[in-house]
Amino acid sequence: MKLKELKVYQLAMNIGERVWVIAGKWNYFAKDTVGKQLVKSTDSIAANLSEGFGRFHYKENRQFCYYSRGSLYETKTWLKKAHDRRLIADDDFQSLQNDLETIAYKLNNYIKSIGPRTDRKPTDSETN
After folding, report:
1. Mean pLDDT of 119-128
2. Would you list the DSSP string of 14-48?
3. What angle do CA 82, 85, 86 make, to 5 degrees?
4. Is residue 19 part of a domain?
5. Do the beta carbons of residue 114 and residue 58 sit within 8 Å?
């Protein structure tokens, strides 16, 4: 599988572009304070997914997915601040919140899928 085929990555890339367009319309002060932080945290979701995907060992990939999840939660905070400060419309806020929830769900499932399979029963030689 290629990175660009990974659905969680596609969604993360999409939300990053949407946030860029929204924050780009703000005044200088809003862009310089909340806007930069919101864009950086949102872009970091996809960036960490891609960095982990390119790592050699599955444990490194998983670690970068944890960083991605941290960026997702940081994005939720900046998005809430933007909404509370009336920088983002209610409908955009709700749509982005819903998409972040979808990404969180898919990211958690992706993290669970990384690494050796643990759902098989050990053989006799492995238990002795």
Report:
1. 48
2. HHHHHHHHHHHTS-HHHIIIIIHHHHHHHHHHHHH
3. 85
4. yes
5. yes
Q: Chain-wide mean pLDDT for the chain?
A: 92
Considering its fold, how many domains does the chain have in total?
A: 1
In-domain check, residue 122: no
Which tokens is 17 given? Answer: 């572009």
Q: What 3-state class would DSSP assign to 118?
A: coil
Residue 42 sits at the vertex; the CA angle it makes with 55 and 35, to the nearest 5 degrees, is 140
The whole-number pLDDT of residue 126 equals: 41
Q: Which two tokens stand for residue 127?
A: 């238990």
Sign of CA dihedral 49, 68, 41, 21: positive
Mean per-residue pLDDT, 102-117: 92
Per-residue buried b or exposed e for 7-32, using 16+ beta carbons within 10 Å of the residue's own CB: ebbebbbebbeebeebbeebeeebbe
Flag whether 14 is in a domain.
yes
- pLDDT tens for 35-45 read 999 999 999 99
75 part of a folded domain: yes
Residue 125 CA to residue 121 CA, distance in Å, equals 12
pLDDT greater than 60 at residue 84: yes
